[in-house]
Design brief:
The protein has 317 residues and is of the alpha+beta class. It is built from seven helices and eleven strands. α6 packs across α7.
Length: 317
């Protein structure tokens, strides 16, 4: 390992141990999928005054956002998954996971939307311009930066076997992802975060890799970050035998089989509380051109209205 690699590794370990000294040995333990159900607050918390949420900076706010054109120290390549990425360390010694390519912008927007609706999300930002020292390139592509130094990885959790399956809050999470045309429901995209013990709850169930969004769903895979295809696809087709039928063309359709109109109404009512200014901020945060962001916002809002209209129609069609 190079001298830089050693320093980066030591920095990561030091930050993690400092935040969670008693939890270091549990970093890779898998999340349980049996036994007593944990509090739903580990998955979702009422956003309360949703209008006060800053969808430009997200959960981390402005104080944790890396300044434009920051130079990061290269700590390693991230070769897992669809998108190219890097592990880097900022000048303050904080570790970040960077994703570049066509998943980086939609992941930031989707994360802002889920966080606005009350679902736990990582601290993420989009940097159009940044620099990297001692890495494979000095000026990498624009990327999604996810803070890794504020939690310990507690393992993955499954969409089909988890403590929240069947609850309104879990169904709402699935529906919100469908509304954004996220088709990548792999368990490896989900993480349990062990947060500082002074937080309540200190254990979070997080959907963190949601870049396969804002395109079209398809079999066996869809696309990402494609406004033309996103506009062409509907959200709700109808209701049969008390279950909502979606315009979804991807894998993992078993997740859609039990969704009721009441559950769609619940999450769409929350998303409908996001203001025009907040929607605009969410897309500006990922550096979308205004005209493209406006098109996405119109389509997303029309899909929310599709969901809300279920409240004025019968249970069967």
């Amino acid at each position: 390992m190079t001298t830089l690699g050693v320093r980066a590794a030591v920095t990561l370990i030091a930050v993690t141990v400092a935040c969670f000294p008693e939890r270091g040995s549990q970093a890779q333990s898998p999340a349980p999928t049996t036994g007593p159900a944990p509090e739903l607050a580990q998955l979702w918390q009422d956003p309360g005054d949703l209008a006060s949420r800053d969808l430009f900076y997200g959960r981390g706010g402005k104080p944790l956002a890396p300044p434009p054109a920051t130079e990061f120290a290269f700590a390693g390549l991230d070769t897992v998954g669809y998108s190219q990425g890097y592990d880097v360390v900022d000048p303050q010694g904080r570790t970040w996971d960077v994703k570049t390519g066509d998943e980086s912008q939609p992941e930031v927007v989707a994360s802002r939307v889920l966080w606005a609706a009350g679902y736990h999300q990582p601290i993420v930002y989009f940097l159009p311009e940044w620099f990297m020292k001692n890495g494979p390139v000095a000026r990498p592509l624009a990327g999604r930066f996810r803070l890794e130094a504020d939690h310990v990885n507690g393992g993955t959790w499954s969409w089909t076997e988890n403590p929240f399956a069947g609850t309104r809050q879990f169904q709402g999470l699935v529906i919100a992802n469908l509304l954004l045309n996220n088709w990548d429901f792999k368990p490896t995209n989900n993480r349990v975060y062990q947060m500082p013990p002074d937080l309540t709850p200190s254990r979070w169930f997080v959907v963190q890799d949601i870049g396969a969004s804002l395109g079209r769903t398809g079999w066996p895979v869809g696309n990402r970050n494609n406004i033309d295809d996103f506009e062409r696809q509907r959200f709700v087709i109808g209701v049969e035998n008390g279950r909502v039928q979606f315009d979804y063309r991807g894998r993992h359709t078993e997740l859609l089989e039990t969704i009721t109109p009441a559950e769609v109404l619940w999450i769409c009512d929350i998303l409908n509380r996001i203001s025009d200014a907040q929607w605009s901020d969410a897309f500006r945060s990922a550096a979308y051109p205004q005209d493209t962001g406006d098109r996405y916002i119109r389509k997303i809002k029309s899909k929310i209205q599709e969901g809300l209209r279920l409240g004025s129609k019968g249970s069967d069609r």
